[in-house]
Amino acid sequence: MQLRPLGAAFAALSLAACATAPPGYPVQHRPEHRPPPLRPEPGPEAPPAPRSLALSALKGWEAEDQAAALAAFRDTCGAARDPLMAQVCRSARAIGPLDREQSRRFFEAHFRAELEPGEGVLTAYFAPEYPARRKPDAEFSAPLRAKPADLKSIDAGLFDPNQAGRPGAARDPGDGVLAPYPDRAAIEATPPDKALAWMRPEDLFFLQIQGSGVLTFEDGQRLKALYAANNGRPFVGVANVMRDRGLLARENTSGEAIRGWLADHRGPAADEIMRLNPRYAFFSLAPDDGRQPVGAANIPLPPGRAVAVDPAFHSMGELLWLDAEAPILAGAFPTYRRLVVALDTGGAIKGDVRADLYLGLGAAAGAEAGRVRHTLRMFRLVPKGATP
After folding, report:
1. Which residue of 36, 73, 285, 377 lies most exposed, with the fewest beta carbons within 10 A?
2. CA trace torsion 160, 152, 300, 207 (10° rounding)
3. Is the pLDDT of residue 38 over 90?
4. Residue 232: which of 295, 128, 160 has the closest Cα?
5. For residue 388, what pLDDT is reported?
6. Residue 113 parent element (H or E)
7. Complete DSSP assignment for 29-57
8. Cα separation, 121 vs 346, whole angstroms
9. pLDDT in tens, 132-160
């Protein structure tokens, strides 16, 4: 997250100084006499910044492609369960496609924006395309594993009360005694019962982070790798460790740079880095239909218009405005300001002001996604008539 300006720090110090009155001089006075104040009475406090505002007041609203945003909303708004949002969804679908100006008027007529307090982080993800093999060799040595029979979905609060209400996983050996599912290192030390495919280790690692992708086999067949489950362990990013160890430059910890380093150091050195992330994902295979992957809302993700959010704070189908700037990675776009729909979740996406923007399928989307780490302000678009 970006550091706040020094002016804000000085303002905070000034406020702290005013919070406690300076000691006064002793004054002799009659009980009915009120001594003069030691300092001027404080004036009225400045009004807080408004949380609710018109869409036209959003930074970047005039430059937005509202027609593209409305098309994405119309295709995905069926995921919303809020009655007022469902009503707006029916209206959008009834009128059909609109041009940019008409779309702008539609959004402004039906929604107001509500600021989520504080700053957070915007990242991005994509659906990768990787080569795969049906049998292992020295290069393609990492098995793509199916969901194990002994993996049981549970409330994560069973093992960690701080994670209550979040999805978790446990090992169920069949005797009724559940245990935490093994971490990445333990799983990789166990030979697979039957591998769905064999991949380069660094490709599998990134497929598990992204959650889905397309595999191309040596005979040209293309299959979708679809997320099936994970081992319930927390997601741990490796970028900071690699930076702190001097493996990557401070401003070059993009996904592309990380994957390149892992490929160049394939073997024990790369395995050590990857095993710092104990989370492990399992998959299933399906025919490649050419469509975008499906997110947690069970709806294909529109590139550039779908985000993964924390389900503890946001519901599927919510319409959000991203105002993201101040990237920390070299080569990144300077800003991301746009309307998006909450359609997915992710193990690393925690908190209210936190979003992971889906950018599409393939290498170009991956190159862009790997450079997104921006300071984020976020607004919910709330149907007019809803209680603030």
Report:
1. 36
2. 80
3. no
4. 160
5. 58
6. strand 111-127
7. --TTPPPPPSSPPP-PPPPPPPSEE-GGG
8. 14
9. 999 999 999 999 999 999 999 999 889 98
Going by pLDDT thresholds of 50, 70 and 90, the confidence category of residue 2 is: very low
- Bridge partners of 225, per DSSP, are 213, 285
- H/E element, 86: helix 83-95
**Angle formed by the axes of helices 83-95 and 66-76, to 10°?**
120
Torsion over CA of 120, 79, 51 and 55, rounded to 10 degrees? 110
Report d(CA 184, CA 295) in Å as an integer.
24
Q: What does the alpha-carbon distance between residue 124 and residue 349 come to, in Å, rounded to a whole number?
A: 11
Max Cα-Cα span within the chain = 101
How far apart, in Å, are the Cα atoms of 190 and each of 143, 144, 277, 344? 11, 13, 17, 31
Decide: 344 and 307 in contact? Cβ < 8 Å: yes
Q: Of 79, 106, 108, 80, whose CA–CA distance to 92 is shortest?
A: 106
Please tell me which residue, 255 or 40, carries the higher pLDDT value: 255
Euclidean distance between CA atoms 230 and 211, whole angstroms: 10
Q: Tell me how crowded residue 343 is: count the other CB atoms within 10 A of its CB.
A: 26
pLDDT, residue 218, reads: 96
Chain centroid to Cα 87, Å, comes to 27
Record the tokens describing residue 233, joined without a space: 């362990």
**CB count in 10 Å sphere of residue 196:** 20
Give residue for tokens 């880095």. Answer: 273
Q: Is the pLDDT of residue 28 over 90?
A: no
How far is residue 135's CA from residue 325's CA, in Å, rounded to a whole number?
45
Instruction: Using the predicted structure, report yes or no on whether residue 9 has a pLDDT greater than 60.
Output: no
Q: Both ends of the chain: CA-CA distance in Å?
A: 28
Total-model pTM: 0.78
Q: Which helix (H) or strand (E) holds 282?
A: strand 281-287
Output DSSP code: residue 345: -
Name which residue leads in pLDDT, 43 or 303: 303
- In this prediction, residue 166 has a pLDDT band, given cuts at 50, 70 and 90, of confident
Please give the helix or strand (H or E) that residue 215 lies within, else none: strand 212-216
Q: Which residues contact 168 (CB under 8 A, 6 or more apart)?
A: 153, 154, 155, 156, 157, 158, 159, 160, 232
